[in-house]
Amino acid sequence: MSRITASVYTSHVPAIGAAIDHGKTEDDYWKPVFAGYSFSKQWIQAQRPDVIFLVYNDHATAFSLELIPTFALGLAAEFSPADEGYGPRPVPIVQGHPELASHIAQSVIQDDFDLTLVNKMDVDHGLTVPLSLMFGQPTAWPCRVIPFAVNVVQYPVPSGRRCFMLGQAIRKAIESFDEDLNVQIWGTGGMSHQLQGARAGLINAAWDNRFLDRLIEDPSGLSQMPHIEYVREAGSEGIELVMWLIARGAMADVAGGKKPIVRHRFFHVPASNTAVGHLILENASK
Predict the structure, then answer these.
(1) What does 23-44 look like in DSSP terms, one character per residue?
(2) Per-residue pLDDT band at 286 (split at 50, 70, 90)
(3) Residues belonging to the active site
(4) What are the structural domains of the chain?
(5) What is the average pLDDT across 82-91?
(6) I need a surface site. Which of 6, 37, 65, 282 has the fewest CB within 10 A?
(7) DSSP string of 90-150, one letter each residue
(8) What is the pLDDT of residues 162-188, one digit of tens each?
């Protein structure tokens, strides 16, 4: 049977992708950001998954205000990088896993989660920047990727509790797939940032680090945090962090297993106008 071996959490700042694409990773400004992922690149070479279930949010590229799915699961065989107004990023086409994605759809929908099933979709920086941070600039991504887009752009957005419960349903679905696959689940977005209004540029490092503490030690309690706290403490775009709760809900300890092993934790301010957070949790062996 398939199994989830680890979860990865990371910001997906678009300027990080631009820094990679334009060879600026060693610039004084960017070097500390990318140094925080040096361990992660080594780790994933040793723990390379067969499939990544990648939770992210679309930034008005695949979906506009004409159609706003709360949860959208990519079923296609491949997903091209989106043109976000300055041409597609020069990164490989994402190869999907239609068989596992379809199985997840069947299982999760039967567990009473309504998903939008997407058979054609371009993927933007929300998905490609995390892949670049972990894998660098390969000619082809080294594993399959199932995109899972969450609406955290236009209210109403899903609650942290709903996302945490969805992660549990995704774990159940993956573990019931009749193929021996090493699957990782990634939660992306955040951390604290606000891109507009009187509080534009807001970063709350103390709150971000408390969030990381609770994500590790008390994910169930963290899932009860109301939307207003995300917005008040982490800015209007801080609500992206509910997507991390999907990945955390899929870990074994939530279903009664052992606590995950913290392989890596990183936090840095600033990157563009956001805080960058990054965490790797491994499921403990039985």
Answers:
(1) T-TTSTTTHHHHHTTHHHHHHH
(2) low
(3) 125, 193
(4) 3-282 (3.40.830.10)
(5) 94
(6) 65
(7) S-PPEE--HHHHHHHHHHHHHTT---EEESS--B-HHHHHHHHHHH-S-SS-SSEEEEEEE
(8) 999 999 999 999 999 999 999 999 999
